[in-house]
Amino acid sequence: MIQQLIEKIQKTKAPICVGLDPMLSYIPEHILKKSFAEYGETLEGAADAVWNYNKEIVDHTWDLIPAVKPQIAMYEQFGIEGLKVYERTVRYCQEKGLIVIGDAKRGDIGSTSAAYATAHLGKVKVGSKEYSAFNTEFLTVNPYLGTDGVKPFVDVCKAENKGIFVLVKTSNPSSGELQDKLVDGRPVYELVADKVVEWGADCMDGAYSNVGAVVGATYPEMSAILRKLMPKTYFLVPGYGAQGGTAKDLKACFNEDGLGAIVNSSRGIIAAYRQEKYAKFGAEHFAEASRQAVVDMVADINSVL
User: Rounded mean pLDDT of 134-145?
Assistant: First the structure.
């Protein structure tokens, strides 16, 4: 699976993914009005607005990018109706040829972790039949329950040719409260990196492993250390743009071959029309603003590679 992602990155020359993390506050008024007119100010109405918003953004960007990353919480907040739209969005992106990184940050132990892996990456057996539920190509995984929590995901990756991105050093300001603490003289994020290499060793797909790592763009010095510790690990890099990470900051996430990382931008792309830089497009043409934001992001990142 990581090889498929690499091939799409090389084809598009765009080492980025669009974070489909919709909030109602991002959605232009004309979309909200139409959905509410049909379904009322209900969870179903909100979910319909999210779907129409997502679809237009995907329709305007799919040919420029290799992947998308929908954050499932943005859909879960609307209950079952929201989850239906999450599934519908995943399917639609796949029909467009995009690789989908499900951002669910799952992680538990034993049968619970196995059930999460089945739901998002694998197949569930129902009588004599098997079904794929959300069926994303990748999933983000929380490693803080240790190997018990991660191994079920790795097992499904091996069985189904899927991939995961394990949280190692995240982009949020308070990540250091735990991730930077020293244990035997080393920060926790380095110890997690060692485990990621171990988990990924028997899950290789060419030069890189199907077990990747989430490494934030907001801590470039740490990114450089982690790149050396995990040379065969693909990085999913949040924190670019709206969170303050720059192209220069994330250069250390890449290997010398120009590969090794895929950079995410969420509201910087999907809500680009609200930025002064793209205000000329207006709310009616929000997806055209998103397309221009993708073009600008790709050029920005490629300028440092």
Answer: 96
